[in-house]
Amino acid sequence: MLCLILALFGTPARAQLPMPAPAPASPSEASPEVPAPPEHLSSPRRTLQTFMEAVPQASPLRPDLETQVRSTLDLEALNPVTRNERGAEVARRLHSVLQVLEVSPSELPETSQEETVVVARAPSGEMTMTRRPDGSWVFSRHTVEVIPAIYAELVSQGKISSPGQDMPTMLRSSFLGLIAWQWLTLVFLVLITAVLNRVLVALLQRLGNRWLQRHQFQADERVLHQVVRPVGWLVACLVWMAILPMLQLPETLLVVLLFATRFLAASAWVLTAYYSIDLFSLYFARLADRKDSRMDEMLVPLLRRTLKVTIVVLGLIFVAQNLNINVWSLFAGFSIVGAAVALAGQDTVKNLFGSITVLLDRPFQVGDWVNIGGVDGIVEDLGFRSTRIRTFYSSLITLPNAQLLTASVDNYGQRQFRRYKTTICVQYSTPPEKLEAFCEGIRELVRQHPHTRKDEFYVYVNEMGVSSIDILLNIFFACPDLSTELRGRHRLIMEILRLAAELEVEFAYPTSTVHLPKEEKALPRPAGLTAKEMTAHEELGRQAARRVAILSDQASPS
Question: Most buried one in 304, 419, 518, 556, CB count within 10 A?
């Protein structure tokens, strides 16, 4: 019975036990705090006060105030291409409407728990503010949409004056979708910007020439014209961008014109920077020529190419951003393509590091005679991707800079001394006295030469060849380049030829004697020498050698 009672009443009893209280959430699990809204948008009253004070002062010269005005409006529904211009137009019209309706910031609450607050009402619609998730208050999207209708209603009532309202009837007539005064304004805008472009380019060209002459720098006028011409386009585009929003053009036409104007303005910026690099490169190249620094001659072209590539890449991003294209989202979307491009661009990165290595280590300079991986020639140019070498048979070899990271570079242009080794062959009939005089004369020529090393040279009778007595000539030229070395060789060789003519020393040529057999009776061979006769001949040779050695010691300078 006890078990039955426990079975019937025990389970409900357990169900009625209180559940344990949940553990308090840790600070890391708490919901993140919402950042406080900006002070000037913290309430409907603050937003309206900011709007009414900033609109009259906002202009292209005060972009901070223009940004502040746009922050009070919900412009997400507008076309991204014309959002800034349409936003400025909506702000001006809304400001005029609020002034006519005599809406004061004090009429709006300082705090409100509602999500929407009515600012003012008109027959064409009501103007409201909405609270965003971050707590800031802005004029609603509905307000931005109804402002043109409210503004047109007040204009028709004569409470607001609009552009063209006071013009003659003929100028207010419509033609091909535009009002006559709009057509005239566009034509006048084309003419005035064309004249402004020409005048500005001519003025900048003259000022640029004066500046270059003041700095004693002569540049091609075409280079300077390439720099100043985009500046004229830029100023013309800025004039168009300032006036177009005031013409109240149709949305489609305004989008097209603003798109084209922004594209031309951004392109003009990029072209000005691009061609300015050429002008400054010429200027620094002339300075490098004055300093006679071959390293600067190599550095200036490389920096010019690098800066041009950088300007092109940044220019494309700049143009895209001015056209309201989100470049970074495109990069994120093209991650796979970017990985493929990165793999394909490995060689380009290697070439870039190769050029940086050359600039830092300076293994060679422009004009040096080098041998890189079997490529022998004169360095003509160090580029962003490759190095150009002019061979001695006048061909041009393009060597990728990536090879410079691993290849051995033999720089003949950095030699302190240039060795010249040759053999002078004289006839066997030349007396030893003339040989001594000839060798000493060559030594004196080396001492008197302006480009030879005086502390280390060798001029000695070195070998008895098949058809000549060979004199070794081993000297070193102290020359900065190959041209000076060749001139030094030419001078020394011509002096050696004149010395040989004065001393009557004849040069030997490879010769050979051919003996033809004769049919004669062979003579009997003489009997061999006795030991006593052989000893006498040997003693005679030793005595002659001693006399020659004594004479050589007396005649030799060392």
Answer: 304
